[in-house]
Amino acid sequence: MDVLDEVRGLAPAEQPYDRQLAVARSLLAREIEAAGARPSTPRRATIREASGRARWRWVGGVTAAAAVVATGIVVAGNLIPVDPTGPGVPPVLVPPAATAAELLEQTADRVGGVGAAPAAGQYLRIDETDAFTEYAIEDAATGELVTMGNRGNAIAAFVTQRTTHLYVPADRDDEWVWDQREPWSVTRSFGERADEAITTWKTQQHTDTPPLWRLPGGRAPHSSEAPDATLDERELFDEMPRDPAALLSWLRARTGASGAEADRQVVWTLGNSLTTNLAPAVLRTAMFRALALVDGIRIHHRGDQTSTLAFPVPGDGWTRTTTFTIDDAKALVTAVSDSSVPAGGSIVPADLPDEQRTVSVTIVDRAP
After folding, report:
1. Measured between alpha carbons, how far is residue 303 from residues 23, 98, 125, 307 in Å?
2. pTM higher than 0.85, yes or no?
3. What is the DSSP letter of 161?
4. Counting beta carbons within 10 angstroms of the beta carbon of residue 35, is it exposed (0 to 12), middle (13 to 18) or buried (19 or more)?
5. Who contacts 164 (Cβ-Cβ below 8 Å, separation ≥6)?
6. How far is residue 169's CA from residue 360's CA, in Å, rounded to a whole number?
7. Are 138 and 154 in contact (CB under 8 A)?
8. Helix (H, G, I), strand (E, B) or coil at 236
9. If pLDDT is split at 50, 70 and 90, which confidence band does 114 have?
10. Could you report the per-residue pLDDT of 87-98, keeping only the tens digit for each?
11. Where does 76-182 show beta strands of DSSP type E?
12. With contact defined as beta carbons under 8 Å apart, do 44 and 53 qualify?
């Protein structure tokens, strides 16, 4: 048998599905805590801070509600996908997944694909756009609007948004730069008194964080609680099981919750953690396979190059839904959102998330 015969033998017996072709082309082409009934989700809690907020923490893929995955060592050749137009990337035809578990298993199989890491002196630039829906209720004593409440009792609401840029050096022990110079902006508003609520919110905006933050080794200066803690929490890497079932159990235990609520926090955690390739490939593979073991995740939408999965958790008149979008070619999560929707309706549209993160990753030659 010559080489051509061997190639013919590898060809699929049937014509590829449109979905298969899309994947092949892609590969070739390369919280606020609510008052009342709404469940709470600390926006920037970490493994060490399971019940609080750590505003300095970067959310980008390694922090999440109450159970944060600790990741982050340099994985040469596998931090971001190569230029999809480059040569030498073979097409991979996969059957269209019928279930979310199948899709996640297929994604896990692609994690070890070709990638590129920053060379010495270069940086991994992580652009993260955060959007939060802020709710306002009336102060019973003064009648003024205060930024509290939830989707169910708010009489005004608005969406705040900001994009930050985190520069991760090729050597993680070198200086990181976190560019937070872009101010928060208001992109949407709801309710007749929304302007009043926005004015109140603006008066409350203050931070001690430098707008251009330089962090040696990715460590927060003057952190008395955890002086060795890093933004990517790579110091906790060895604690994380590589077996998917064991990793899922490990994460569930970290939440301090049980049942569907524990799984909701795990889904949020892993969705965030997989927005970048900061973790070793073997661990990212285990993360996707751990997600495949969570009952209740469903396919919400299929595009040509992306797939969006949803994990709804109903209870007490509310439905809390976590969604995450996977780039099929890169085996990366590009967006994560969380929503708590009451059965009784709201002034805010049901399809507007309470919190949404969108992340993109590139390699650059310098940091600001």
Report:
1. 10, 14, 26, 6
2. no
3. E
4. middle
5. 127, 128, 130, 178, 179, 180, 182
6. 16
7. no
8. helix
9. very low
10. 444 444 556 778
11. 80-81, 115-116, 123-138, 145-146, 156-169, 175-179
12. yes
Q: What is the rounded average pLDDT for all residues in the chain?
A: 78
d(C-alpha 302, C-alpha 281), whole Å: 25
List, in order, residues 6 or more apart from 310 with CB less than 8 Å away: 297, 298, 299, 300, 321, 322, 323
Collect all residues with Cβ–Cβ distance below 8 Å to 245 and sequence separation of at least 6.
Answer: 290, 293
Q: What's the mean pLDDT in 25-51? A: 36
231 by Cβ neighbours in 10 Å (0-12 / 13-18 / 19+) ranks as buried
Decide if 198 contacts 186 (C-beta within 8 A).
Answer: yes
From CA 307, how far away is CA 19, in angstroms rounded?
A: 11
CA distance 144 to 152: 18
**Which residues have CB under 8 Å from 5's CB, separation 6+?**
none
Contact predicate 357/272, CB 8 Å: yes
The pLDDT tens digits for 194-247 are: 999 999 999 888 777 889 999 999 987 777 777 778 888 788 778 999 999 999
Distance CA 236, CA 287 (A): 15
Q: What's the token pair of residue 212?
A: 């251009």
Strands 80-81 and 115-116: antiparallel
**283 vs 238, 261, 307, 324, CA distance in Å?**
10, 23, 21, 19
The rounded distance, in Å, linking the Cα atoms of 219 and 327 is 30
